[in-house]
Specification:
transmembrane helix, globular, MFS transporter, alpha+beta, 512 residues, 8% strand, transmembrane, five-stranded antiparallel β-sheet, MFS_sugar_transport-like, 21 helices, Growth Hormone, Chain: A
Length: 512
Amino acid sequence: MTKKSTKGIWKVISASSLGTMIEWYDFYIFGSLAVVLSTKFFPSDNPTAAFLSTLATFAAGFVVRPFGALFFGRLGDLIGRKYTFMVTLLLMGGATFLIGCIPSYETIGYMAPVLVLVLRLLQGLALGGEYGGAATYVAEHAPKNQKGYWTSWIQTTATVGLFVSLVVILITKGTLSKEAFDEWGWRVPFWVSIIMVFISYMIRKNMNESPVFAKAKAEGKTATNPLKESFGNKFNLKFVLLALFGATMGQGVVWYTGQFYAMSFMKTVQCIESSQVDTLLGIALIFGTPFFVFFGWLSDKIGRKTIMMSGLLLAIFLYRPIYRAMYTTTDLALKTEIVAKTKVIPSIKEVDATKMDSIYTTTKMYIDGTALEEIKTKHFEAGKLMLDDKGKDKIETKITKTITNSDRWMLVFLVFIQVLFVTMVYGPIAAFLVEMFPVKIRYTSMSLPYHVGNGIFGGLLPAISTYFVTTAKDAGDVEFYLEGLWYPIGIAAVCFVIGMIYIDRKINTLHD
């Protein structure tokens, strides 16, 4: 590869990566702020139901990604890679900005969650067309036998987008007071995205079309009906199904377990203070991100299958020990409380003649430096304690832990291990998918299995796993916090078996 061609491909990667990173940023600030958004766009009388509804809305954006893959994949194979992912960038950026403008549930009632859902669906459609275009565009500029290395730079963008979203949230929280952030500051990360989208648009509009696609178009070898040629052709459909059930299905659940489920687990199950979680997750991502490129490069040397299947296998056997270690790291039952420093502060605020709320704030300190704040809210009506939907006293409890540096670094290490699994299955997969399909239907054929695997199997993980945890907790399961892992473990195991049996190591030379 000449120096000139190297310089050219770096321009391609930079432009493609920046736009894709911004789209992931747009997509994931919603997930990063799920706990806050549940209090803004959904009824507040049942916090658990509101949080689950928020996760379901988050998942809805993933569910429609395959439809975006079909629609924009078809356009990409008909009119070109460049213009298609220009459209997806603008659609994603506009939807994200508007989410930050929606009035709260208290202001417009049920229109709030409806509008959020509509915009989430638009985000999902846009992202469904973005990734396939960016990965295909870079791969078609890359030299032979180096596609794994060069496309792995695109693979870093999802993690970088998540990292940037966490940084913007932390800066916003650090700049504003807690009250200001809760009132309106949470909207700022959504508004900031429009600036980044404009910059990316200006860069992308000056890019040239993929030389491989341009050559095929000039020779009249592009597809006339990409959908029919991709999925109506039995030979090609076989590869589409293999890509889904033998690779992207497992990759999707590993990706979301190692990053989003880990974040949700620390905030909602371990009850660690939100900014501490964002910080330690960001540190783990910084350490882990270079391994996307490493495993992409390594896949050019030893093959995509070996690395991806190894990542799946490690995740299957190590998830439960890792999450058990995460839970016990901050388990207060294993720490010694400084009883003399425990404070209980009751306060009763009269709302009207027949209704009052009784709030008790308990603070505790532990010998190792861990701090606990527990707020119990008892709701009264006509002088009587209100009942929940199960006939029990309606008492809401919010627990927040501020953990020590040693515990924080232990959690950084445990999340980093999970990110390594992610880099193993995700680093080589763009090249793996591109090489499975011919140029004329590549955008369409690779986009669908990728977004079904990530959008359906991966995107539903937060909602399904949280439901499993909640159900196990209500049933009195001692290790309830591990139940949510059965979903990603099961999906990854099925994918591993199919991939080991049916993926041919020579598949990465199929369409060189």
